[in-house]
Amino acid sequence: MITVHTLGPAGTNCEKAAHLWLKNNGHRGEVKLHQTLEDAAKYMNDTDGADILLGCIVYPQLHHLVFKNLSHLKLIDCFVMDTHNMVFAGKGQKPGEIRTVGSHPAPQDLIRQVPGINTQLSIRLFNSNSEAARQCAANAVDACISTDISANRCGLTVLADFGPVPMGFSIHAKIA
């Protein structure tokens, strides 16, 4: 039984990729979601068993994650998967009325691609696309860049749909 540690909360592209990796490699296992990949790596350092870490190649600090953990983690696999549809979502307002947008650091450039978006808006960064949707639903920001899955779970209105993005994911195993 393998445990795949990756970025949460539920609805992240990393969660989707973790389930796909298990299926495509014929493994039975579970997916454990963490607030950050750094938290996942730290957790894995303190566990025994067949644990792996799944990261996204556009994760802002993936290079630090690799080099700071060379003593106990090694890169063993990479694959490409289409993400969930990446969306710009809010609570029904028009893009020009939005003043604050939440996003994970990686897809934040999508904000400027939204037709009619206010160029003077403030961007607030969160640990994941799913967290950006949760914070939007909690009124911490007016809108967010997230996945369609997370936007729908949070009751948000999709204002722009960028579609799926072919994305790379890395698999890191514990060094025996």
Automatic annotation (TrEMBL):
It comes from the Bacteria. InterPro entries: Preph_deHydtase. Residues 5-160 form the Prephenate dehydratase domain. One of its GO terms (biological process) is L-phenylalanine biosynthetic process. Pfam families: PDT (PF00800). GO terms for molecular function: prephenate dehydratase activity. This is Prephenate dehydratase. The lineage of its organism: Bacteria, Pseudomonadati, Pseudomonadota, Gammaproteobacteria, Enterobacterales.
